[in-house]
């Protein structure tokens, strides 16, 4: 038996770390958004703020975690990756709020084809015929999953807007995966430094929209109303804030030690587990179309 070399073990550990963190994030996020659908941006802001606090606390505990000093030049250079990150997170949150957990990966099924397209345009490289064939297969899987099904009750049929959120989320995730590679040099090739800039910058960018959307006043009204189950929102924010911090680091590490497209393979692999867990935890409805879609998307990615 041939043992895995240290680099292979490193990649396997990073991918597993990413998959576990991502699964926990999706299901706790879904539970909170089900209980408080009116507060998606505030929920996202709290996650980002908790991640910033955890990064700062980590730097105080361990010398290996270095938080960069604020520099205007660096901040300007990182505006593209931070902007794309927060836009992708917002559409991701809105999509998860409006669709079933088991359908979430189907709604974002175009992540891999869009990542291939964005990578090809950005790197000015032409994908191989095999890559194009696989991207086409994944796209077919997405179309199968979103096709109307008579076996679904009206309440379980995803809206056109929720699918639009999913496509936009996929597009900005693709941009983000590619921009990370070019942004790391501005952060001394440190994933921790990039995670700090990304979370802090994203929190600053989303705060005005939380205010403009009226979510702070809505939160106060729900809190003082006496009929809101605030515990799910508060504890869910804490849990997802912690795992959001872990997921941010895991995602950056995954892209750093592999590649944007290989990173998407990890996402596709966990989609099968996510679908099964969604059916089990939330009693989501699984149709032939949806099962076939997951199979086609995963198969095309592999």
Automatic annotation (TrEMBL):
Membrane-spanning segments: 12-33, 39-57, 78-96, 102-123, 130-150, 162-182, 194-213, 233-255
Organism encoding this protein: Panaeolus cyanescens
Entry's localization field: Membrane
Ranges of residues in domain Sugar phosphate transporter: 11-299
Pfam families, per the entry: TPT
Annotated keywords: Membrane, Transmembrane, Transmembrane helix
Membrane topology, as annotated: Multi-pass membrane protein
Keyword Iron: no
Top-level division of the source organism's lineage: Eukaryota
Protein name stated in the entry: Sugar phosphate transporter domain-containing protein
Annotated Gene Ontology cellular component terms: membrane
